Amino acid sequence: MTLDRIEYVYTFGMDDEDIAEAIETNDVGVLSLASDGDAYAIPVSFHYDGSSLYLRLTSDGNSKKLSYVDDTAEACFVLHAVDPPDDSWSIVATGPIRELTAAEQEAFDETAINERFSELRIFDEEIEAVGLTIYELEIEELTGRKTGDHIT
Question: InterPro entries per the record (predicted)?
C-alpha cells in the first residue's frame, strides 16, 4: 500500500503559548499509567499551574488506578481535540507522578478544588465512601501538535 492515495493532514508543532492556552482552557484529559508491563488509561480532571499538572483522583478503597499510580515511574497525560473535518490538536505531558504531601494537600481545600477542577463524577460508589487525593505530574516533557492545511 502506498500513502500517495490516502487522505492526510499535515501536523506542526505547537508553540509554548498555544500549548498553555489549550491546557488552560480544558479540564479533562487522559492519564496513562503502567504496572509490570500492563497499561491503564483513565480520563481525569486536572489543573495546570504553568509548570505542573495537578490531578484529582478518587478511590472507594478498591481503586485500580491508585495501584497503578504507585507502580508508575513515568506517567503520560494526553489532552486533545478534534474539530472535523480537518482541525485538531494534541498535547502530551510526561514525567513522574506523586501524591501531594499532607501539607501540600491543604492548598486544595473544597473551595480550591471546586474552582480548579471540573465537577466530581461519582459512579456507583456511596459519596461517603469516596476519598479524594491530589497528585502532581511533574512535567519533564511537554509537546503539542496541531493540524495545518488539508492536502489530498
Answer: Pyridox_Oxase-rel, Split_barrel_FMN-bd
Count the domains in the chain. 1
Mean pLDDT of 42-68: 87
DSSP 139: -
N-terminal to C-terminal alpha carbon distance within the chain: 16
d(CA 101, CA 124): 28
Enter the C-alpha cell of residue 9: 493532514
Q: How far apart are CA 13 and CA 109, in angstroms?
A: 36
CATH of the domain at 18: 2.30.110.10
C-alpha 13/C-alpha 19 separation (Å) is 10
Closest alpha carbon to 136 in 82, 95, 107: 95
Q: Which domain holds residue 53?
A: 3-151
Q: Which of 99, 108, 26, 101 is nearest to 65 (CA)?
A: 99
**What whole-number distance in Å separates Cα of residue 95 and Cα of residue 137?**
6
